[in-house]
Amino acid sequence: MELPPEIDHIRLRLKYLKAKAQQDFHRYLVVFAGSDEWIMQLLNKRLLSSSTSNTLVISSRKLPIDAEHCPAKKLRTYLGSEVESLIWDGFSGLNPDGLGAASGLVKGGGLFILLLPELEKLAAQPDVDYLRMCTHAEELPSFGTRFLQRLTSSIENDAQISVFKPNTEKTLITPLSELEATLLACPKGPDSGGISLPSSDQHTAIKAIETVALGHRNRPLVIYADRGRGKSSALGLAAAKLHQQHNYKIIITAPSRRACESAFQHYEKAVSNINNVEQANADLLVFMPPDEIIETRPECHLLMVDEAASIPSPLLKSMLETYSRMVFSTTVQGYEGNGQGFAVRFKKELDQHSPHWKSIELKQAIRWADNDPLESWIFDFLLLDAKLPETQNTLLTSLTDSADIYWYSQNELAENNTLLKHLTALLVLAHYQTSPSDIRLILDHPKIHIGVISNKSRLLGALLIMEEGGINDPDLAEHIFQGRRRPRGQLVPQALIAATGAAQFMIQSSYRIMRIAIHPEFTNLGLGSALINATYDYAENKHIDFISTSFGVTPELVPFWSKNQFGILKLGTHKDGASGTQSMIMMRAISAQSDQLFTQYADIFKDTFLFGLSRQHRALSTEKVLTVLENLPLTSTQINSNEQSQLQAFAEHFRSFDDSLAILHPFILNCVADKVIHHLNKPQIYLLLMQVFQGRSVQTAVQTFKLKGKKQLDGELRAGVKALLDLKNRL
Predict the structure, then answer these.
(1) pLDDT confidence band for 283 (50 / 70 / 90)
(2) What is the CATH architecture assignment of 404-617?
């Protein structure tokens, strides 16, 4: 193939776009859409050589570009850094989360360059990144391309995107002479439109941070901002001021050290007049990962949490309970964890623990000018600005107020952009892990089902279902049990086979409820249960064997699913990296075969859990232990006279705890089964469970419940058993 005749025009056009970007401090999207051979010819002629200064190339292959290369799966390690240009190789796949994150790396005056196949071909078949959603590669052709169609449409309909194609007139619209004249008229030098730091918004944030550090305790601050508003740099500037004026030690945490790099850069610059900057940074502004903070609880004058929305809520809650002076900073819209959902969910924790907490929002763009073309495009394409419509304050009082459930096809959803936006906004509010990749999964995964509950066209709730199982492959089941295979798209079957060895969990067909979301203004009306019951009917009509769910254990979620006739089959022994807590699998049988399967393995799980309480589940929070116990198939039995006398001997100080443990274990379990346990206060319940079931050390119990020593611990245990005996005797 000969070199395209428009090469000089393309090169000059790129120079013009770069100059224009620097002039208005905006960022622009540039698209090269053609065959891989055409793209490589342009690159071999160093077409982008003038744009490779401080450039990052996102590709799984080495392109002929003299710049740093990074595969999309490692892109998150670059969050917090900046580049003048970013080149994304679309021939290596189009990861939605990666595209969103990559756009945030480009600073004002820079270009985001997309290398794509011909747009009509791109929208015709799934790209290689879709393999991440496949159980096996042979499934790829069954996936849709609605997300890619959305991408091509968004590119073709945005007048601020420059698209270069082979042998087209679009690149020759402006004569070379006019481009040259325009280029000469543009000012020289990068960042000519930059905004000086700190901005007025940042000044407000710094003062608010100072108030947290120096004012009343237990009044945390939450800083909200879109990308590029300078929230991380405000943290660094405030830390420097507190160091210089008060010699304060500050700990900053985030999903990664790189995520808060801007805070350290601005801190070090602000304290550069100190002789030993490195020592100042090492001693007075320290980064620690969230889990290390929870484990070691280091002392500091102020704890800063950057990108808080991407840190599991249980970890944030633990920090809030430990530290009296905290600042949370989070992205409002985004691919690093969504601030909208954070605002709704974590607000409850803040209201309960620190009712005097404050919040501010940074709106002024710092790293690029307002009305940035790249930001506008990425927000629209990935629905990062999706919001639920305002309600009319006409709350439902019950399901009798004509709430309807409808199952949408993926084509219907793709053609209804308003509904897609509202659904995305709802999922964002309900689950902090919701990301742009979920949009692609919803639109294109062949085994996804979308249920919506609405009232007079107003979206009240939704759920997403993933088909699983229906695979009769003994070798696959054996490999899963041996830990040699972990097929994608089979979360519940493979987890249950790995735990039990029962291939029936893969053979039987199932629906996993992977997301369920209710509008925050319409909770506690039974809408979630209505969606689950509708799912049961929907699955039964399609001859599905069972429905399942997998989630991070909380004392609120387990009873909800139990109330909806789900039983526990598995509890993880390690904390999940996403939720910050142990993951649980629950199941509701539909067919007779699945009911038999569930009954068998629910009993096995009960025995396994009780056995493991003093072993692999010893560190499980006692509150969660009680939650699990209350949702097991336990049976209440009468206490015989011999048991009664032994328990009475312990309660009246005639028998030691160690000698009584064998009889205390079934007795406390009995009290859980008949709910007598709840007549005690929570500290009494938790103390009994911690010592009788988990076998925690005396020191741990004394410290946890702030007791004076072993003697008081012994007295509390005996008093709790005596109260339970009295209650049981009155039944």
Answers:
(1) low
(2) 3-Layer(aba) Sandwich (3.40)
The tokens describing 237, both together, are: 């500037």
Helical spans, DSSP H, in 115-199: 119-122, 146-156, 176-185
Cβ-based neighbour number of residue 159 at 10 Å: 6
Three-state SS across 337-371?
A: CCHHHHHHHHHHHHHHHCCCCEEEEECCCCCCCCC
Q: Please report which helix (H) or strand (E) contains residue 302, including its range.
A: strand 302-305
Domain ranges in the chain are 7-185, 200-362, 404-617, 641-730
What the block records as the tokens of 403 is 């709430």
pLDDT value for 277: 47
Decide: 240 and 402 in contact? Cβ < 8 Å. Answer: no
Correct CATH for 7-185 of 3.20.20.70, 3.90.1860.10, 3.40.50.2020, 3.40.50.11040 = 3.40.50.11040
Distance CA 693, CA 664 (A): 9
Tens-digit pLDDT profile for residues 176-220: 555 555 555 555 544 444 455 688 999 999 999 999 999 999 999
375-405: buried (b, 16+ CB within 10 Å) or exposed (e) per residue? bebbbbbbbbbbebeeeeeeebeeeeeebeb
Please check whether the two domains, 7-185 and 200-362, share a CATH topology: yes
Q: Rounded to two decimals, what is the model's pTM?
A: 0.87
Q: Say what the alpha-carbon torsion angle 260, 266, 269, 273 is, to the nearest 10 degrees.
A: -100
Q: Was domain 200-362 assigned CATH 2.60.120.260?
A: no
DSSP at 389? P
